[in-house]
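Chapter summary example.
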Amino acid sequence: MISTISFNAVCMVLQTYYDLRYHFFFVFEVLEILFNAVYYFEFCIKFYVDLMKYWKNGYNILDVIIIIILWLPQYLRKNFRREYGYINIAEGIQAFRILKLIPYSRGIKTLISALGQTICTVASVLVLLFLLMFIFAILGFCLYGTSEEADMENWGNLAVAFFTLFSLTTVDGWTDLQGVLDERGYMWSRAFTIIFILVGSFVFLSMFIAVMIIHTEDSIKKFTKVLSTERQLALIEDKQRILKKQQEEINALMQREKGKTYKSFSDLVRVFKKSLNHTDPMVLEDFCATLSFIDIYLSSLDNQDNTVLRLQELYYEMVNVLNQMIEDKPMKKPSVTSEMSADI
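The structure predicted for these 344 residues follows.
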């Protein structure tokens, strides 16, 4: 499905070039039918496998919406042949099929869940920003849209004032808007513009970005925790499978020696060891045969290696210090008695 959706996206990109679309029109039409057939077949399989739980998954609902979008251009061509504008719109929204890649990527699903968690907080921030823009829009209309030298293009009514404030919020072309007010003699308008940019852009937009970053980090931490849990479960399953295999092999060996009598389990193990080949499993009654002991033993070996390495480093440092002490120690002068004995 990932390959199919990706190849479909490439075909949609190629159809944006007029020459390719004109020369390979039949090929693109056949590929479109094949892609739609694959999407319909996937929908039927998922719907057949689990009918009740299908609608509880939001990504399955997204697939249904995409299926409806895929069917929409054919319906419009069949019933509204003359209204080409609607057909163009229906063909344009076909690009939503690329969203089918979302369920196949856990990273993208994590980001989507982070966006879902930020909806309430982001909505509150947007409501506060709307209230601020409403106050400044009314104020801007009264100051710059009602006098004789009014700027009707930017402050003539409430809708235009909202659009102007949105441009100031995004800090897009605010110098041009301020230049128009300066030309009309509104010198105090600079304070109005600067205050709104500081509050609307630097405060609210920064708050919006901070909320998104916080929830994204939380989702990434949860995703990392889930991955570590899955790895631990996979490790436990591997250990259980190994233990089960060992038990099955031991039971097979027990069945092989079923008719014989032994005094103890140690006697049984001793006889097994004599009769085993190099390919047969070894049965041990000691604690060292368990996986937990092997894990502890290997970790102990690692700690032992680290301890030996540190001891070697300490030994080399001590040797170096002693060597320096010997080199720095002054030489003793020969005594008088030794000189007299040497003369004799």
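To summarize the output: The CA atoms of residues 149 and 183 lie 10 Å apart.
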